[in-house]
Amino acid sequence: MTLYELNRLVREAIEDSMAREYWVEAEVAECREARGHCYLELIEKDEQTTTPIAKASAKCWASKWAVVKPYFERTTGQRLVAGMKVLLKVYPQFHEAFGFSWIVTDIDPTYTLGDMARQRQEIIRQLKAEGVFDLQKELTLPLFCQRIAVISSETAAGYGDFCHQLAENPYGFQFETHLFSAIMQGEGIEGSIINALTRIYDTAFDCVVIVRGGGATSDLSGFDTLALAEHVANFPIPIITGIGHERDECILDMVSHIRVKTPTAAAALLIEHLKGVFDAVNQVQDRITRAAQQQLAAVGYQLTALEQRIPMLIERRMTNAFHQLQLIEERVKGLDPQVLLSRGYSITLHHGRVVRDASALAPGDEIETRLEKGKIHSIIRPPLTPPISGGEIGGGGAPLAPDTNK
Q1: Using alpha carbons only, what angle is made at residue 358 by residues 355 and 359, rounded to the nearest 5 degrees?
Q2: Which one of 13, 198, 247, 365 is at 20 to 30 Å from 373 when CA atoms are compared?
Q3: Adjacent-strand bridge partners of 40
Q4: Could you give the CA distance from residue 288 to residue 142 in angstroms, rounded to a whole number?
């Protein structure tokens, strides 16, 4: 037999013995499209060791794929990508030249949804077990949140909408945005966004905004990964997501600080946040102004009252001071030595000091005696020897005249 004849026997045997279609569970190891057809590599792994225990090729011809693809993506919100668990309806086909392949006629999206949900729940469970699921929620947007790091594709319509919304805000607020370009659809989402976050980490921004917009809803699987969720959850500044889809939140949305549906909604959030701060500042300014006006008014009333009382207080104090002066004057008059002199007393001075003890003076000291009228200057002399009577000295004589200067 020739090889062709042998392969034809195999084909006929398969067609005869496996003429019907089968529903088969498998994991997509590879998925690619070419000329409208979809080519798949399917795999089954051991649940304990994850070692592959079965592999097969599968094809979905363009006529079927044109119907199956949009239904699958519309139902799951995801493209068919490697790593997905799928439930395929297939029949066997063996071609003499191209060998064996499973031909796909249908895909059950509900099976994939269930597996996706299971995977998401497992990621959420792990994030909560690590204690990082709500870390972003504990952060606070800065009051003046104006320096914005944007993670998006430079050509994404959502990025342009976001920047335009900020620039054209009705309040004239100024925002500074810096783009950190990243892949926002397809299989490169996870690594690209993580790389952008790494570049932002060492810079000074008030918050990070991850926006997409304009892409197909089937390109969101990259936002549902554990590694990306962990990076976002642990990031030290608030992250706002505006991925631009209406379906249930992706895991990236769940762990971010704030999730909005569209890039323009993210811009509106930042504008309203700053407007709230602006209004609060104005309210505080008004309160300070009113308080200052009240204080000034109170001080004005006090000054007016003082202005009315000051003359009376001055007059009263002047009267009291005059009375005190009179009292002091009387006391001074009572202590004036001239008063004593007018009463007949005298004051004796020696070198300008009052003499209170005669023993303090010696012969030859000059003293000054002050009277009510005039002064007398005297010199201290030694006491005189008593005179000898005339009978005793041989004859009498006249007594000496008194010394008027003594």
Answers
A1: 120
A2: 365
A3: 31, 58
A4: 23
Tokens 């006929």 belong to which residue? 12
Assigned token pair, 210: 């991850």
The whole-angstrom separation of Cα 374 and Cα 338 is 12
- Sequence-distant (6+) residues with CB within 8 A of 64 are 104, 105, 106
Reference 103, options 150, 149, 38; nearest CA is 38
Q: What does pTM read for this prediction?
A: 0.62
For residue 394, give both structure tokens.
Answer: 């041989």
Q: What is the DSSP string of 361-382?
A: --TT-EEEEE-SS-EEEEE--P
> DSSP per residue over 121-153, as a string?
HHHHHHHHHHT-TTTGGG----TT--EEEEEE-
From first to last of the 406 residues of the chain, give the pLDDT tens digit.
Answer: 999 999 999 999 998 999 899 999 999 999 999 999 999 999 999 888 889 999 999 999 999 999 999 999 888 878 898 888 999 999 999 999 999 999 999 999 999 988 888 888 899 999 999 999 999 999 999 999 999 999 999 888 889 999 999 999 999 999 999 999 999 887 788 999 999 999 999 889 999 999 987 555 556 778 889 999 999 999 999 999 998 666 557 899 999 999 998 999 999 999 999 999 999 999 999 999 999 999 999 998 888 888 888 888 888 899 999 999 988 888 887 777 777 677 778 889 998 898 888 888 899 899 999 887 889 999 988 877 666 555 444 444 444 444 444 4
Residue whose tokens read 């020897």: 385
Query: Residue 182 is which amino acid?
Result: A
Which among 44, 43, 40 has a CA at the least distance from the CA of 58? 40
The structural domains of the chain, ordered by start, are 3-118 (2.40.50.140), 131-275 (3.40.50.2300)
